[in-house]
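TICKET #2291
ISSUE: user wants both folds in one file
ATTACHMENT 1:
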Amino acid sequence: MAKKEERCCDPNSNINNCKVDAIVSVDERGQMVLPKDVRNKAKINSGDKLAVVSWEKDEEVYCICLIKTEGLVEMVKDVMGPMVNELKKSK
């Protein structure tokens, strides 16, 4: 059986896989630039769509994560697929 790829954003993954790749600044217009080496490493290209996901605790945002939309679709399938299959069986 092939080992399932671990994702940093996956709550079941090992948090040690997460690391700081860069520090970015936000300009007066609220924009920021992802460094080229980070974009290359993440295979983010011009025109790619990224979902902005935040994690809040006590009404304060503690973490903001960018996920390529195609990766988000796969994560939703991974989570929702088993639930949908169970619902189909119970009918």
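ATTACHMENT 2:
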Amino acid sequence: MVAFPREGHAYVDCLYAALERSGVQAIQGAYTRAWLSANLRRSDTVHLHWPSFLYSSPQTGPTARSIARYLALLASIRGRGAAPVWTAHNLLPHDSGRARLAHKVVRHATIRLSRAVFAHGPSAARIIAQGFPEASGKLHVIPHGHWVGYYKNQISRTEARARLDLGNEFTYLFLGQCRPYKDLLTLISAFSRQTGAIRLIIAGQFKSATYRAEVERAANGDSRIRVVDCHVPDDDLQVYLNAADCMVLPYVESLTSGACVLAMSFGLPVVAPAVGSLCDLLTASTGVAYDRRNPDGLVDAMRTAQARQFSRETVRGFVERYGFDLAAGKLAAVAREHALGYR
């Protein structure tokens, strides 16, 4: 199997390790005509994860030339007898802005040229089929694998809270890249309406100085809120996730949430909107899902999370049922079916 990308992200690192345990080798490809011509075989499966990175950049965005090159190479892969497959981590790239239509056109073409489309859970699969009907006959539902045991998890709650200078306050946490579609302004507003001994930590890297200024301005004057603008190293994830009482992910939109799976891998309950794969992950024992259309939805969900007694063992046990081995098994089955067709 040729992967784009093969490594450099916890999801693909774990997925392809599981795939290779099943007997299917995965290699990193180069998305160039020369590399594909020299290395691609008719029986190969070509696995795409985030196609927009192959034709778009933060500096230029998608251009007609870069899109044409991407689609020409994808058609070439099909023409050589190899099988492109796509795992849909999101319906469209986040923060698409004015390029939203261009990304949607490319998604349609990617699905038409793909042999299979993988979705993380039945709710995500339904959303993909509604947005892109041509995917219906190609959809395969796979779990988003958990990270229990992947990241360090040795620090105690007491030590973690001491590291973050927390007392006995109920602590809400947002952890991840800080981008506008994650709606941190609404989170701060909802937090300001909570009562009792509480804290809010927003930890993650801001890519936009303007957005950071907006978030800090909204939090200004509330000593209960701490904004930590930094990339949180893998070994420090345990500090935030073991210190907190609840993860809050107030996304405007989400098809798949790796952050939710990460929190649950540490036994941390999650508050998030009932969208995409979050619908399948959030139960009465793992968190609180709310309706984004309700202006008080997030406020009420945060209050419910504070009042409810969650068991970390139960939350972690729920997500442990969804391993990367299960996802890799379905991916391997598609790859082997294609390879058998050329024997």
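RESOLUTION: both attachments delivered.
EXTRA DETAIL ON ATTACHMENT 2: Residues 6 and 68 are 24 Å apart (CA to CA).
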